[in-house]
Amino acid sequence: MYRYEMHMHTGESSKCGVTPGKEYIEIFKSRGYDGIFITDHFYHGNTRPERSLPWDEYVNAYCRGYEEAKAEGDKQNFKVFFGIEENFEGDEYLIYGVDKEWLLAHPEIRNWTREEMYNLVHAHGGCVIQAHPFRDRNYITKIHLGLDYCDGIEAVNTGNKPVEDYIALAYAKKFGLFTITGSDTHHKSRISDSNGAIAYEKPIESTYDFAKRVLAKDQPALLFPADRLENLTAKVMLPVVIFENGQREVEEAEVLSWCREARYEVEEKRVKHIVCFKLKNPSEVNCRTAADVLRSMKGKVEMLEDIQVGVDFLHSGRSYDVVLEVVVKDKAALEAYQNHPYHVDVVKKFMHEARESSVSMDYYI
Ligand SMILES: [Zn+2]
Ligand SMILES: [Zn+2]
Asked: How far away, in angstroms, is 34 Cα from ligand 2 center?
């Protein structure tokens, strides 16, 4: 098997890159890799060259990290391939099967959209792979899944959190996506046995050769530490938007259903049920009695994971008198609670009699 690093950055061309391109060669070579793809941050991402430069100067500066690495690779008989990482709204795409000449010939890509990127790259025989699709960082406000604009995803990115890979793999299974693994290396000191890579039985000849394999769905083996996906629970922290024949919001429940279908552990959301009561006669003793009746469910109504009861002290115009808050495992447990004999025969009976009105609210926590 031939092993390749698919996603990495150089100090010359990525603002967040630290290690000069040529310093990577010896390290990856000694670790048994057969080649690396340099994928520096491009024009809309964390790119190093000034965007105000004339296009040819920008492209020359952008390609420097790759060229330095390639020159050293040639000296050491080690393959170095060209790639790009482009950014839109925090969603980033790895592009393979293009080169410097192609960049120089397309200054219009300074303003490209995701769709234009996809079409232009494809017209050249290249491919687009969405990098770390479920990345959750402070600069990202929404997860954008570019299903319409990519040929596959980086399902495992060992430079990011394992739980993000967990969901990405479920997403890939759901939509039958081509997948790769990368490390997102920015610094040589971070290269370790935990780095993700891909492997093929036949060596990759060029960035165009790899793009062809992607378009032909010639799926490589994904290499990453065996314990990376152990003991994880899928949860969705950010709103999700998917570009799939248009654009739509994806409910968290839908993302979790992809994870369940992939037989992955999913964080089950518990339900909080709150009721505020206004009593017919809110004397102190009546409020306390009502509170005691509500509290008496503790230990008797077994589906209650938590119960809190409170009596209002402010007595403002909008105040209610007594509040009940309970937590149950899920929506089914809430229904079971509503029908529990003690709840129905004792508590509800008493509260219906004592209350003037009530309001309630149920939500997932
Ligand atoms: Zn970076
Ligand atoms: Zn990256």
From this structure: 20
